[in-house]
Design a protein that fits this description.
- This protein is mainly β.
- The chain contains nine helices and 24 strands.
- It has helices at 59-62, 76-81, 125-133, 218-222, 232-235, 290-295, 297-311, 408-412, 435-443; strands at 4-9, 39-54, 63-65, 72-74, 86-104, 107-124, 143-145, 150-167, 172-198, 205-216, 239-251, 255-269, 273-278, 281-285, 314-317, 321-324, 327-338, 341-352, 355-368, 372-381, 384-396, 399-405, 419-420, 422-428.
- It has a 22-stranded antiparallel sheet that branches.
- A hairpin with a 2-residue loop joins β20 (372-381) and β21.
- The longest helix is centred in the C-terminal third of the chain and has 15 residues, at 297-311.
- The protein is globular and about 90 Å long.
- The protein starts with a strand and ends with a helix.
Length: 447
């Protein structure tokens, strides 16, 4: 029996964990991996994850010391120079309620129940500029482009049962993990178009755009009654399906290719829905007519508010709707450069609300039998190229401990970081590892 107490904090990118292919946790990134573990069982704290990522600016990009006294001041131009047209702030929280893995000859069976909470907020660079500069400088005569402003909150429980199998004398392994999903909470923008234009002659302000926000069981969450919706995770009123696919192939015993797609699927939200659909807006504010205001301020203000309310009115419905999962793709390569020493490269891709987030890591991994695994990686992710990942895995007898950080800078110097991740875990297992595989690792002939 495997008892596991694992604490993991990472934003579900897991560049370093992907290289720990001899741990059961790596199967969540590629179901084709075949860790040398006979039986894995975990409950409650088998896997707990948390992570934060910001693709825009760092704290020190926005607040810089003033030369005369070193006090911090807002450096808006510097922060703007670090931002993309649309930027992302994301949070991830995940807990494995139950996990089971059984390896039998060429088959590896997997079962799990996992709670996932994900929040992604997207904001355009022009919104940041508009807040700090207003509409009277760079936006005078120009449209502040706020298209793409949006968010996605997803909370659900996934029930997965998967299998992988080796072929071609263990050179090829293919894995898949189908998932049945029960949605808990959701809120997202399915449409977001917004712009603000200031006329450079009359200074009239024109607002244009439209927005649609769809929610399921959001009221208890807003009321901080977080436990009220948890039953949704088990009653399948909001039902969905997902799939993880993976493959791994070894070439000439020294070169290995791997690929996976994770969280390919959808959820249909049916319970306690409240959706808000705004009108197509094209409203111009020409300023205040002082003569009308002073002659009858009450009627003037009421009339103005009525006209604004008519323009910005939104309709509400309880229609069912479908959201996609946050789909991720991994493409990796590993080469044996010495006995027990591997070089590796990993490409990462994620799609959320039509936004694409890529990443790349380069590194090396040292694997000494089943006893010790060390991995170091350099990563470019979230428009940030100062990510150094380190990881260590100890296995002694039936116990295993690992600690992984995808970005040490986020721990040592948080003000200069955009990503904050940490992974640590402790587990024990039944059954001895495959001695033939251990020998192959010692001799440097097996990946």
């Amino acid at each position: 029996m495997l008892l596991s107490a694992t604490l993991q904090l990472f934003a579900q990118r897991n560049f370093t964990l992907y290289q720990f292919q001899n741990t059961h946790q790596s199967l969540y990134l590629n179901p084709a991996f075949r860790p040398n573990i006979r039986t894995y069982v975990a409950a409650g704290m088998g896997l707990f994850t948390f992570g934060v990522n910001h693709s825009g600016f760092t704290f020190n990009d926005l607040l810089t010391p003033r030369s005369i006294d070193d006090s911090l001041v807002f450096n808006v131009p510097n922060a703007l120079s670090k931002m993309a047209k649309v930027n992302q702030l994301s949070f991830d929280l995940q807990n494995e309620l139950f996990g089971l893995g059984i390896r039998a000859k060429k088959l590896h069976l997997m079962f799990s129940v996992v709670v996932k909470n994900q929040f992604n907020f997207f904001y355009p660079r022009d919104l940041f500029r508009f807040v700090f500069e207003g509409n009277g400088t760079s936006f005078l005569g120009e449209r502040a482009d706020l298209d793409g402003l949006g968010f996605k909150l997803n909370s659900y429980v996934e029930y997965a049962a998967g299998v992988n199998r080796s072929f071609l004398d263990d050179k090829l392994s293919i894995g898949l993990r189908p998932k049945l999903i029960s949605g808990i909470y959701n809120a997202h923008t399915s449409r977001s178009q917004l712009g603000i234009h200031t006329n450079d002659s009359t200074f009239d302000i024109t607002i244009d755009g439209a927005m649609t926000v769809k929610t399921s069981f959001l009221n208890p969450l807003l009321d901080r009654n977080y436990l009220a919706g948890l039953s949704n995770g088990f009653n399948f009123k909001n039902i969905g399906f997902g799939l993880d696919l993976g493959a791994q192939y070894t070439i000439a015993e020294r070169f290995q290719l791997s690929a996976s797609v994770v969280d390919l699927g959808f959820i249909k939200w049916n319970a306690n829905n409240r959706n808000f659909v705004s009108n197509e807006v094209n409203f111009t504010f020409k300023g205040i007519d002082l003569n009308s205001y002073f002659s009858d301020s009450s009627n003037y203000v009421n009339g103005f508010l009525d006209s604004v309310q008519g323009v910005f009115n939104a309709t509400e419905n309880t229609d069912a709707y479908v959201t996609s999962l946050n789909t991720r793709f991994f493409l990796g390569a590993r080469a044996k450069i010495a006995p027990m020493l591997y070089s590796n490269v990993l490409m990462f891709n994620e799609f959320v609300l039509g936004n694409y987030s890529p990443g790349l890591s380069l590194g090396a991994t040292l694997q000494v039998k089943e006893f010790l695994t060390l991995s170091a990686n350099y990563m470019v992710y979230g428009r940030f190229a100062k990510n150094i990942g380190l990881g260590v895995n100890f296995r002694l007898g039936g116990f295993q401990f690992f600690a992984i950080a995808d970005n040490l800078l986020g721990i040592l110097d948080a003000k200069n970081a955009k990503n904050w991740h940490l992974n640590i875990g402790l587990s024990s297992s039944i059954g001895k590892p495959d001695t033939k595989k251990n020998k192959a690792v010692d001799e440097g002939t097996a990946l």
